[in-house]
Structures are given as structure tokens and as C-alpha cells.
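ok, trying the design again with the full structure, not the truncated one.
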């Protein structure tokens, strides 16, 4: 099957240029000058010509942080691999990396097998896994090496959630030492969970059960402190570190200092920390529960720091941390006790559009938009140049993006399997109009034309930003 995408502006992380894209089967065969002899001859033999006039043609976006069917607080996030990857495709994301979970007392093997079972034959787009290590033992440390050999080359540890996912500093150090020998990257949920639990108990004892107290009991200083500690532990172990869902200026300062001294420390932020704030958490009644995630939403002034971090590359990636729980019956588990509200915000469908607002508003350049949503996550998580780049030999994961389209986000129209939108009523510029996954159109004319099971498991390589 030969496809020609003609008349668009190709945007890679290196910048925009006019080019026609030749797709042969699942792979990009070439980028050629519009109207050139190669383009004309490809057009003559093509099975399909897609007109991209007036549109950006970008590498399919890579979301390095999702939680489909994740157990949390006695319930499960509501997007399955089928519904979540379809919603991702609608928004121009053609690769997700989800978190397989090792439960306490179980092996990594059991956790990884379970996640393969959940995803196999279900996904609309390609997918990989990170692994959450919640039980650092001699045997799980050894298992890390085996998992790396199977293409799961990054491990998340938690300084938060004592009794659930939490690891002590000693356990974290041991996992980091293991990572330094097997070439994997440690991802860190950096919040001081021990101190937070004290603040939570004190707040509840005072009768402070509303959602806004979720934010008050997880102060940004405790994110900064944990980020500092994680960075020092990684320094001692000589391991690369990736800070997930960074939300606070105090944490960003620690990342800046580490990067300035040449340490291999990377960080992501998420759209919710750039567009929402603690004012949403404090909405009337129980509405704030829709915005409960950890780390919590911060004051609006933090948006300025995070956009600056994205410009300066101290924040290298924007991921969603997509973790959807319905308002009805799931978020409601925490009525009167914010500590029982399942943590997480839905967003896998909207990342590309939200970050494009940063381009429209002059916060970042067009090429930086592609870099933070596609190219850098592909590099960091060992998928580049298969993903994250439009070039001969790369997978034909391609998004046609209309910068002049407008849309309004709403639970009534989104494709995520969740009963509310954190961005309800928000009007944005730009939209993915046609989405190809490995050469096959999966979304066009606002319709899903893909199928569950098209998406393949991706065995990932080493972090490509280490040399
Ligand atoms: O609130 C969040 N972030 N939920 C998902 C789990 C995690 O810590 O990433
Ligand atoms: Zn986390
Ligand atoms: Zn997460």
C-alpha cells in the first residue's frame, strides 16, 4: 500500500519545511520536494493521496505516561487499552507507554504478564510499558534485568503513598544501582509521602475533608524536598533519573541545578499543571474532586515557571499522566474524606491540542511542540528514530494537524471513557484531522477507522539521551 501525503508543512523537532511524504506500507519511504519528479511518480503509483494543504504534518505523538485499567484506592481507572488508545489516536497520539505494576509481595514477572494480558489485541496504536516497582527485594532487583531484556527499559518508584507503592530511600538507592548496571532509567514520583500522611491525618482530624485539602496537605515544598533527595540518590548510584509529573517551582529548581552540573536528570510536566490550578481543586461543593491528582494542582503563577522550563529544556517532555476515574461513584468514594478520592485526571486525548495553545500563545515554538510531545519522549524511552521523527525508515505514524481548526472540549464529545472533562467548555485552536499509525489511517473526518489489535507492543531500547 503506497500513500502520498502532499502539500503540507512537515514539522520535525529540527523545524518546519515544505515536503511531500511518501509512505510505503508501514514505513516512511521518503520526504521529497512538493511537485518534484519523485512526488509525481509516487502519486501516479499511489493507492491513496492525502491532501495536507494548509496543515502541519508531524510525527505521531508519544505519550510516555498513561494508566489504563490502573488499580487505585479500591477501584480501577476506567479507560481500557481499547478505549484509551482510541481516544489517544483521536488526539494525534500514536504511541503510549503505560505503567505495568508489580504489586507488593508479587514478582515483576506477574505484573508484566498481567499488563500484556490487558493490552494484547486491544490497542488502536502502538504501546510500550514501564514497570512500577513497589517491592524492592533481592529477587525483584534481579528481575529488573530480565524485564529490560524484554524491552521494558524504565522503572517507576514512589516516594509517596506509604503502604502501597512507597519505597524507602534505601530501596530506591538499590533500584538505582541496579539501573546503573542494566542501562535502564529510574522514573520517580517525587513527593515526601511520609510527611504528607502526617499532614493528611491532621487535616482529617480537624474535619477538613473537602477536595481542596488534598492540595493543602501536599505542599510544593515536599515535592521540592523529594526531588532533591531523588536527585542525590541517583547521583550516588550513578544512574539516570526521570522525574515524572513535575508540578512545582521548588522541584524545577532542583532539576535545573542537577542539569547545570551535568547530571543525567530529566523531567516531564503535564498539561494539567500548565492549564489548571489549585482554584479548580477548590471549586464549589465536591466539584474539586475532578481535579484531584498527585502531585496536586498548584497556584496559577506556577504556569509561568513551567512554560519557561519547557523553553529552556529543563522540562524535556510533556506527558499526560492520563488516569481517568469517573466523577460518579469513583471520585465520589472520597465524599467527606479527600484522602479516599482516587488520584488522577483524564487527558490522553488532549495533550497535543493543549500544548499547541502554547505555540499559538507564543510560549514555545512549533518545533518545540513536536519535540516535547513526540521526539524527546521517543528518544528518552528508546523508541527513536522508529518513533518521534518523520524521516525515511521511520514508522509512518503521521498526524495531519490543522492549526486553524477550533474545538471545544467536553465530556459530551470526547472519546475517553470517563464521565467528565477536566477542560469542560475550553475552546482551543488546532486539531488532528487525519492520523496514521504505521501507514494505516486510524482517524479521519473525526471518525475512528482503525481497529483494536492494530497496535503492537514496542520493545524499547536504552535512553537515547545518555550519549
Ligand atoms: O494522581 C496521579 N498522578 N495518579 C496516577 C498515579 C501516579 O502517581 O502517577
Ligand atoms: Zn506518580
Ligand atoms: Zn502516573
Amino acid at each position: 500500500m503506497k500513500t502520498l501525503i502532499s502539500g503540507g508543512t512537515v514539522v520535525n523537532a529540527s523545524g518546519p519545511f515544505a515536503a511531500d511524504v511518501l509512505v510505503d506500507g508501514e514505513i516512511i519511504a521518503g520526504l521529497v520536494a512538493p511537485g518534484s519528479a519523485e512526488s509525481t511518480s509516487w502519486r501516479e503509483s499511489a493507492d491513496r493521496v492525502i491532501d495536507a494543504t494548509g496543515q502541519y504534518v508531524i510525527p505521531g505523538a508519544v505519550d510516555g505516561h498513561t494508566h489504563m485499567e490502573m488499580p487505585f484506592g479500591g477501584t480501577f481507572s476506567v479507560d481500557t487499552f481499547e478505549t484509551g488508545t482510541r481516544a489517544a489516536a483521536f488526539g494525534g497520539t500514536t504511541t503510549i507507554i503505560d505503567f505495568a505494576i508489580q504489586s507488593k509481595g508479587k514478582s515483576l514477572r506477574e505484573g508484566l504478564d498481567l499488563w500484556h494480558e490487558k493490552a494484547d489485541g486491544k490497542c488502536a496504536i502502538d504501546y510500550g510499558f514501564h514497570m512500577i516497582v513497589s517491592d524492592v527485594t533481592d529477587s525483584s532487583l534481579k528481575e529488573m534485568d530480565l524485564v529490560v531484556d524484554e524491552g521494558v527499559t524504565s522503572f517507576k518508584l514512589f516516594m509517596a503513598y506509604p503502604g502501597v507503592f512507597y519505597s524507602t530511600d534505601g530501596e530506591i538507592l538499590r533500584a538505582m544501582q541496579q539501573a546503573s548496571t542494566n542501562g535502564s532509567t529510574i522514573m520517580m514520583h517525587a513527593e515526601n509521602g511520609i510527611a504528607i500522611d502526617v499532614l493528611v491525618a491532621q487535616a482529617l482530624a480537624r474535619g477538613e475533608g473537602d477536595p481542596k485539602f488534598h492540595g493543602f496537605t501536599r505542599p510544593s515544598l515536599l515535592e521540592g524536598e523529594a526531588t532533591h533527595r531523588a536527585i542525590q540518590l541517583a547521583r550516588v548510584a550513578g544512574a539516570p533519573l526521570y522525574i515524572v509529573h513535575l508540578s512545582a517551582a521548588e522541584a524545577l529548581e532542583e532539576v535545573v541545578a542537577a542539569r547545570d552540573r551535568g547530571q543525567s536528570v530529566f523531567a516531564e510536566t503535564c498539561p494539567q499543571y500548565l492549564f489548571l490550578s489549585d482554584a479548580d481543586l477548590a471549586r464549589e461543593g465536591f466539584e474539586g474532586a475532578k481535579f484531584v491528582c498527585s502531585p496536586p494542582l498548584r497556584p496559577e503563577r506556577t504556569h509561568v515557571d513551567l512554560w519557561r522550563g519547557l523553553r529552556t529544556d529543563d522540562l524535556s517532555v510533556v506527558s499526560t499522566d492520563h488516569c481517568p476515574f469517573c466523577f460518579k461513584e469513583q471520585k465520589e468514594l472520597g465524599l467527606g474524606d479527600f484522602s479516599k478520592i482516587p488520584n488522577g485526571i483524564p487527558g490522553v486525548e488532549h495533550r497535543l491540542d493543549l500544548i499547541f495553545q502554547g505555540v499559538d500563545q507564543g510560549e514555545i515554538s512549533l518545533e518545540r511542540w513536536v519535540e516535547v510531545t513526540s521526539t524527546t519522549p521517543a528518544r528518552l524511552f528508546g523508541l527513536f528514530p522508529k518513533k518521534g521523527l518523520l524521516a525515511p525508515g521511520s514508522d509512518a505514524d503521521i498526524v495531519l494537524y490543522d492549526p486553524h481548526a477550533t474545538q471545544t472540549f467536553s465530556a459530551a464529545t470526547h472519546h475517553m471513557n470517563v464521565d467528565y472533562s477536566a477542560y469542560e467548555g475550553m475552546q482551543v485552536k488546532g486539531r488532528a484531522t487525519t492520523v496514521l499509525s504505521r501507514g494505516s489511517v486510524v482517524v479521519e473526518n473525526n471518525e475512528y477507522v482503525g481497529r483494536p489489535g492494530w497496535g503492537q507492543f514496542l520493545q524499547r531500547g536504552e535512553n537515547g539521551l545518555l550519549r
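Keeping the full-length input from now on. The mean pLDDT is 98.
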